[in-house]
Amino acid sequence: MRIDYHSDLKEVQSDEALARLLSDAEQCAPFDRLAWWQGLTEHCGMTALLAVARSDDGIAVLPLSGSSGRLAALSNWYTFRFRPIVTGSPPLEGLARDLARRAHRLTLHGLPDEDGSASDLASAFRAAGWLVRRDRCDTNRILAVEGRKFDEYLAGRPGKLRTTLKRKTAKVATHILTRFDAEAWDEYEAIYAQSWKPEEGSHAFLRAFAKAEGEAGRLRLALAHAVDPSAKEPSPAIAAQMWTVEGGTAFIHKLAHRESGKALSPGSVLTAALMRHVMEVDGVSLIDFGTGDDPYKRDWMETQRPRYRLDMVRPLNARNWAYLACKWVRSLAAGAKRS
User: Fold this and answer.
1) 192-244: pLDDT as tens digits
2) What pairs with residue 177 in β-bridges?
3) Alpha-carbon span 113 to 118, nearest angstrom
4) Which helix (H) or strand (E) holds 192?
5) Sign, Cα dihedral of 308, 254, 199, 205
6) What is the pTM assigned to this prediction?
7) Which three-class secondary structure state does DSSP give residue 107?
8) Are strands 70-73 and 105-111 parallel, antiparallel or unpaired?
9) 147-284 under CATH 3.40.47.10, yes or no
10) Mean per-residue pLDDT for 302-331?
11) 295, 252, 293, 305: which is closest to 275 by C-alpha?
12) What is the pLDDT of residue 332?
């Protein structure tokens, strides 16, 4: 088995097999690609440590970040889910054993388990001598389209949402772009600044990502305007959303509306327009609303998937003793409370 670590992600591009594995051609979600991790390091101030284990039977790639023996997932608030990239029978246990030379504690969050990622990693690290704590940390809301047209899907939505769309759709004009447009993106940023959303983590990261997705034909950038037949010029957009589409899945990345336009429900009207587009034009089989169990996501989505955090420590490393002691005391307290 061969194990390599890359702190400079440009090195990966010169490794033909690895670059191909982490390319657009092989990965059907942005979070699994080298370009995504490069964006996090370039625009979000994250340091990278790409751990790669290869054997005759498979490959395991674990994108990490951190220093001083404390490592975490190379991901942030933009990442819907984090997982190792694997082929064949990946040497995860061998990678876990070798990581003990570089880290005393490793925390991975946002792991799915519908593909076995969380369970496989937990098993590999336990077998390699790590103590592993697994907790549910988030929720991923999704919609399986199952061949439905938009109107058929809409008939099953909550009555309040259907009533809102019936009353507001004629009052809001929507426009969906399938390429990157600088002026439209400036409108998105202006809307976001006047929305209820918290301060954006990295405008530069999101813009670079949207531009790259537009060039690849995967971007769905939508704007909503209030309808005013008496206006001589178009009014400023009051809502904007950024989705991407690939591999049969539509990913809902960003959405925002101006508080001044809230009465028109432009966000709901725009979501409906994009839903119709990805179902009937793009023909997706799955729509992914990312993480967070917000009530408005439940109105649109029908299924939820858990996301997990794995906290893994080397029990004999002195730097972990204070952490382990704290966990032990808390466990005793919880047991006493239950008693």
Assistant:
1) 998 877 777 899 999 999 999 999 999 999 999 999 877 767 788 999 999 99
2) 221
3) 5
4) helix 182-193
5) positive
6) 0.93
7) strand
8) parallel
9) no
10) 87
11) 252
12) 61
